[in-house]
Amino acid sequence: MENIANTLINNAKNINLVYAFNGTGKTRLSIAHKNVTKASNNDNHAGVYYNAYSEDLFVWDNDIENGEIDIKLILKKCSLNEFHSGIDELKVHEKLALFKPQFDFRFEYFPNREEGINIIRFHLKAEEKEIVEEEENNNKEEEKELGFADSIKISRGEQQAFIWSFFLALFDVEDLTGDGKQEGHFFIDDPVSSLDDHNIFVTISSLMDLVDKFYKTRKIIITTHHIGFFSIFADWLTRGEKANKYHSQVDFFKLKKNKGIIELVGPRREVFLYHLELLKTIKEAIDSDNIMVYHFAILRQILENIASFLGVRNFSHVLKEIGIIDPDKLAQIINIMSHKTVFRYEFKEPVEDNKQDIIRIFNGIQTKYNFVLHI
After folding, report:
1. Are 338 and 201 in contact (CB under 8 A)?
2. Average pLDDT rounded to a whole number, residues 266-288
3. What are the residues whose beta carbons fall under 8 Å from the beta carbon of 28, sequence distance 6 or more?
4. How high is the pLDDT of residue 143?
5. I need a surface site. Which of 24, 83, 283, 309 has the fewest CB within 10 A?
6. Continuous segment of H or E residues that includes residue 261
7. How far apart are CA 124 and CA 103, in angstroms?
8. pLDDT digit string (tens) for 204-237?
9. Strand 117-124's sheet: what is its strand order?
10. Is the overall model pTM greater than 0.85, yes or no?
11. Domains of the chain
């Protein structure tokens, strides 16, 4: 892992996106990267990290002994506590807003505020709380006297969105990432888990903000097991509205095991079978009846890959080749549905006609080209 970490460290390009199957060693790579960069920086952190251990800092206290009156999230102490003073609820709300949260929260600090945040309590937003109170007209006077009546436990997906937003706010703290501080790099390991597939566009959008702010001066390494995330993020970086800014600073890799040996390879320099991974993702969504809007972005990647292989410019040609009667119209629908502005309208699940469009195109591709998918 140390050799792979050094490969990323020595890479001249500042934006590194790494794809790997779960269990390949993404988190171990982030730890190895941290250790190597610390060793060359007098054992001081040279950058900031987000990985599975970041989420482990947040632990629920369900207050079982008191009937769950005072449910709260405990924030374990770590080296980041000294930077908590640089953020507040408003700054985290700004990052979290993209996820359209249905909850609010408040920080409670240690008596010595320099020790950072101790507890985070969550409660329903005012409008949501009114609905709940109408449905559950229970007598909670005793709880109200204690001041904990509105404490709630948010879902696992909401918790992940909150923690991610918390760290995004920390990344903006000048004392942490400013000049002369932990300014060398950002290493972000698996920001999208299987629990928040619906938030792919939102998470990528938040990362694009980070890239836009720091790509000229910091190395940004992002690893993921999610082929959809990798595909869409790569597309935004290389073909999006700001692609001209990034194209000379972007590199893509795959972390893979080969006969028990872990290696880092560039998908452009090996038979990555990229389109097969994307096709498998579409097939799994169809088979499980779980087609989402972001699958249009993946489908567009597949069609563009095939078009490139055929030596044609527009993927509407591929649609025509696979028997689509109205290729130009369907190409327009695909472009609209895969645009990053779609997420702003909370448009996560397409209407039935659009689902059928995906099924129709997938079946057409398989009938025409007969790709072998090992699922």
Report:
1. no
2. 78
3. 1
4. 42
5. 309
6. strand 261-265
7. 4
8. 989 999 999 999 989 999 999 888 888 889 888 9
9. 58-61, 72-75, 117-124, 103-109
10. no
11. 1-46+177-270 (3.40.50), 57-155 (no CATH), 276-369 (no CATH)
